[in-house]
Amino acid sequence: MARNITPREKDYPQWYIDVITAAELADYAPVRGCMVIKPLGYAIWEAIHRDLDGRFKELGHTNAYFPLFIPESFLSKEAEHVEGFAPECAVVTHGGGEKLEEPLVIRPTSETIIGHMYAQWIHSWRDLPVLINQWANVVRWEKRTRLFLRTSEFLWQEGHTAHETAEEAREETLRILECYRAFAEDVLAVPVLVGEKTEAERFPGAAHTWCIEGLMQDGKALQMGTSHDLGQNFAKAFEIRFEGRNQQLDHAWTTSWGVSTRLIGALIMAHSDDDGLVLPPRIAPTLAAVVPIFKTDEEKELVLGTIRKLMVGLLGEEEVAASENRIGNDQVQKCFYNRLTEQYVIVDKRETARPGDKFYHWEQRGVPLRIEVGPRDCASGKLVVKNRLDRSKDVIDAADFTRANLDARLDAFQKALFDRGLERRAENTHEIGDYKAFCKFFKKKRGFVRCFFNPSKEAEATVKSHTRATVRLVLNANSDREGTCVFTGEPSRTEVIFGIAY
RNA sequence: CGGGGAGUAGCGCAGCCUGGUAGCGCGCCUGCUUUGGGAGCAGGAUGUCGUCGGUUCAAAUCCGGCCUCCCCGACCA
Fold this sequence. Notes:
The structure is a single chain. The protein is of the alpha+beta class. The chain has three domains: 12-271, 2-Layer Sandwich (BirA Bifunctional Protein, domain 2), CATH 3.30.930.10; 281-423, Anticodon-binding domain (Rossmann fold); 429-499, Translation Initiation Factor IF3 (2-Layer Sandwich), CATH 3.30.110. It contains 15 helices and 28 strands. The strands form eight sheets. A seven-stranded mixed β-sheet has the order 3-7-8-14-11-10-9, with helices on both faces. A hairpin with a 5-residue loop joins strand 21 and strand 22 (393-397). The protein binds one RNA strand through residues 2-4, 11, 13-14, 17, 21, 28, 30-32, 84-85, 87-88, 108-109, 138, 140, 142-144, 150, 201, 203-204, 223, 226, 258, 260, 262, 291, 293-295, 299, 351, 353-361, 363, 372, 374-377, 384, 468.
């Protein structure tokens, strides 16, 4: 058992912090609500960035960059938008030692400044669609922060598109939603529900907000991504107009969508255990850690020699030789397993730590596979493969230490992780039709509650005051099944998911 | 922003009530022995006691302001 990690059972919030600390994902910054993303945490973000970026480009989007500072007056141009964001904006009032004529808001999101630019770039239907994404930091002055889940500054991507018709904008919104779903499930191995937000939970200024929602191990819901159909709201506020095929002036239809470093929090809370971080192989910066075991100098020579041969067999002489020239290779030798995804197999050659230390070290950092090679293995031509997820230990022939073998193990790991998530979600999803039972459930338990519900701001506020639960998403606004609203008892065809959210 | 808890060596903590030259465990450094699940012995280094101010001959300790973190609320992409 890891001695530096509080078990989930004992104190879940403390466990979360302990896992982050033990895995060295992040550290607190000397500014309230801000964090430093340390190399391992950042490598995970880079992996998320790399994969999603490819998906966006595959769909036809390109990246651009807009300013961090937004003139304060821009925010006010969309009534709901300013109402939603003004309370959490950081505002710059001075620059260069002088008071600014107009204060500058540090972007909490970029709809306004991008809308302003789109108004200048878009004149004709021939200019549409505009499909731009930006990778950026944003600032939202949060009262209560949590590492990765909610910090005052965070990293994200925000896509902003403009279209000729309402249909196209809606299609774009749903296309991105599906992109997020596939990414969350296939890459992060976190099962997500997909649906629309109710008016109460909608993005300020959006016509429709769609989301992917995951269930964490403590039964709380986590919003992992949103895709907004902005209708013509921002186009009207910023006068994004174009002359159509019919020679009439019309406002463009815009969308925006984003995921953030919060996804790292989702990864931690969905997969990790009392021994520390667990990462899906498709995201893990290090796929396998090779731990040499030896006592004497002769054994050291034998074991390290054997490992070198194994690594050459796995990755080729060129890569192994290159890794030996990298700085620090006498400590932890980093060999590229996949240069495109920047994923490594490492050899932990530190002589200051003993094998047991190394086992815990890499386990806590979420490395999916551990390879042990000792004198006994060298003699028998075998090696040990330990699986981080199910803790199984396989003794395999050295000849089987191949890409095909490792890939198969990593694929099985990825699948097992996702299947475990599906099982957990199934166990923690309940259909409840009666409001008394509904309240009783949330008094004691956490999880997704599926029910019929006729959304309204008032009803949702009342339910929240009773239970702290909110509508996480509308599963189906027009169900084939006919039910009764869990709150009012009236007939309903709207199926929703309630949960207590992070 | 309201309620509760905390801040002393890298980490975890004691000391504070009852002011009087700052301690323990782990980690770290050196050496030897070790090494297949967190090693043993010996020696050693490390602190503006979160910060600013007040009381006092004297403050980690008493008083006040502020900062930061954690938990529970409120708020919230």
